[in-house]
Amino acid sequence: MSKLRPILCSITAVIALLGDGGVGNSTLPIGNVVIAGESQGKLKLTYKGLKLIGDYEGCRLDTYRCPAGYKTNGIGNIHNITTDIIDNKQAAIDWVSNIQQAELCLNNVLGNNDITQGQYDALTSFIFNTGCTRFLTNKDLTATRISTYVRSGKLPQACMQLSRWVYGGGKKLRGLVKRRMSEYLRCIE
Questions:
Q1: CB within 8 A of 120, min separation 6: which ones?
Q2: For residue 158, how many C-alpha atoms fall within 13 Å in the half-sphere facing its CB?
Q3: In this predicted model, what pLDDT tens digit does every residue of 38-97 receive, in sequence order?
C-alpha cells in the first residue's frame, strides 16, 4: 500500500466509462453496462444512485485502509485487490461488480414486494456500504430491523431505519451521518 499521497480519481470520469446505458438520465435504471467494449451485465441503479454511492465512497486508484480497516481501492472496493495501483477502467469494473452484489442482496430480500426507484437506489447504497451480511444480520445473529422491513414490504419503515446506521468502531461518524441522510432523502423521493 502506498505511503505517498493518495492517487485520486474522478467519480464522474469513472461513471463516464460505464457506457451510455441510461447513464446521464438520473431517473431511469442504468440497464446494460459496457466498459471498454466489454459487457459487465446490468444495473437497476440510476445515475442518482451511482452518484450517491460514488460521492460518499470517493475514488482512489491506490490501495489504502478504509475507516473499518479493510484494504480498499477504487470506489469502496475491498474484493480481489492484487495490486497497489489500478486504473479508472479497473475501478469501474470493480464498482459495477460490487453494486451488482448489493443489488442481488437487496433483490433476494425484497422478493416480489413493490419498491420505488428512490428506495432501490438508497437501499443499494446502504448495502454497498455495510455489506450484505451486516444488512441482514445483527451481531447476535438475529435479523436486522431494516432487512425485516424490506422482506415484509414495509419500505417506508426501512427508510426510517437508515439514520440508526451511523456508527463505525463504536463511534458516531460524521461521514455516515451525512451519507445516511442523503440515502434517506433519496429513499423517500
A1: 44, 45, 49, 106
A2: 32
A3: 999 999 999 999 999 999 999 999 999 888 888 999 999 999 998 789 999 999 999 999
Spatial CA neighbour of 129 closest among 168, 161, 158, 90 = 168
Q: Would residue 66 show up in a list of annotated catalytic residues for this protein?
A: yes
pTM, two decimal places: 0.94
CA distances from 27 to 7, 47, 48, 52, 169 (A): 31, 7, 7, 13, 35
Q: Amino acid letter at 110? A: L
Q: What is the pLDDT of residues 87-134, one digit of tens each?
A: 999 999 999 999 999 999 999 999 999 999 999 999 999 999 999 999
* Cα dist from 30 to 21, 98, 100, 141, whole Å: 5, 15, 12, 34
CA 92 to CA 108: how far, in whole Å? Answer: 24
Exactly one of 9, 57, 103, 105 is catalytic; name it. 57
* Beta pairing class for 38-46 and 29-35: antiparallel
Instruction: Give the number of other Cβ atoms within 10 Å of residue 139's Cβ.
Output: 6
Residues 58/46, Cβ–Cβ less than 8 Å? no
Annotated active-site residue 57? The verdict is yes
Of 9, 38, 66, 183, the catalytic one is 66
Q: Give the Cα separation of 175 and 183 in Å (integer).
A: 12
